[in-house]
Amino acid sequence: MGLNRVTLVCSAIVWLSISGLSHAGVTSNYTRVAEPSEEMPLETFPPPAGLNAPEQVHITQGDHNGRGMIISWVTPINDDGSNVVQYWVADGDESTKKSAEASTSTYRYYDYASGFLHHATIKKLEYSTKYFYELGTGRSTRRFSFTTPPKAGPDVPYTFGVIGDLGQTYASNQTLYNYMSNPKGQAVLFVGDLSYADDHPNHDQRKWDSYGRFVEPSAAYQPWIWAAGNHEIDYAPSIGETQAFKPYKNRYHVPYRASQSTSPL
C-alpha cells in the first residue's frame, strides 16, 4: 500500500463486539491528509536514557482468548536480567510480582546489526484486569501497564483502532496521537506497512528502530495486533538480502500457533 493512500482507513475508532457477530462497527470521522508529508528525521526518536535501557516496547495479544500477552522489547546489550519481564495486578501488592523470561535473538541486514530482540509471553492473566509490568534492571528499569480484554461473549463490546500505512512522517505522528487522544481505544488492529524502511537506501534498518520508538507510547500500553504488508517484505537480492520478511518476523511476534497456523504472516 502506498503512503498516500491512507485517507480512508488510517485511523478509525471502531466499536465492535469481541465475537464480531452481534454489532456493526462505528468509525470515527478522522481523515488523514492525502498530500505527501515530510519524513521525520531519525533523531526525532532517540533511545531512552539509562545504561542498557529497554526500548521499542510493544505488546500484542498472546493467545486466542485474551488471557495471554506477548511483550517485546530491545536492548543494546544482553546483560543478566535484560531478558526478563516482571508483572503484577495493578491494584495488588508488588510483592506478588511474577516474572517471565524472554527468548532473545538478533539479526543482520546488509551493513546493519540489530540490538537484542526480546519476546516474552505471559499467560493465565485475568480478564478485564489492569497489570503493571517492568523491563530492565537498576536505574534503567522502565514500568508500563496494560489492561486485558473482557471475556468474549455475544454482547461484550470491545473498542479498537484500525491503522494501516502509518509510516514515519509528520502526518503519521498526527494520526498516532489522534488515536491516542481517544480514551476509548483498547487495542489496535494494524493492517500492514509499518516502518517503510524499504523506501530508504539499502532498506535502512535504523528506520525499524525509530519506528519502534515512535509507536511505543501506545504499543507498550495496549495490544497492537499486527499484519504484514508489502513494505515488510524487505527482499533485496541486489544487496544480498534474500530472506523475505526478515526484520518484521524478528521484531514483531504474533500468536499464530494459538490458532494452529503454521506461519506468522
Give a concise summary.
With 265 residues, this protein is of the alpha+beta class.
Number of E-type strands: 14
**Uncertain segments:** 1-23
Distance between the termini: 16 Å
CATH topology: Immunoglobulin-like
CATH superfamily: Purple acid phosphatase-like, N-terminal
What overall geometry do the principal axes of the alpha carbons give? globular
What's the main sheet like?
Answer: 4 strands, mixed
Number of domains: 1
Catalytic activity: a phosphate monoester + H2O = an alcohol + phosphate
Cofactor: Fe cation; Zn(2+)
Enzyme class: hydrolase
EC number: 3.1.3.2
Describe this structure in words.
With 265 residues, the chain is of the alpha+beta class. The protein has a single domain (12-42, 52-259), classed as Sandwich (Immunoglobulin-like), CATH 2.60.40. The protein has three helices and 14 strands. A four-stranded mixed β-sheet has the order 1-12-13-14, with no helix packed on it. The chain has a four-stranded antiparallel β-sheet with strand order 2-3-9-6. The chain is globular and about 50 Å long. This is Purple acid phosphatase. It catalyses: a phosphate monoester + H2O = an alcohol + phosphate. Residues 54-148 form the Purple acid phosphatase N-terminal domain. Belongs to the metallophosphoesterase superfamily. Purple acid phosphatase family. Pfam families: Metallophos, Pur_ac_phosph_N.
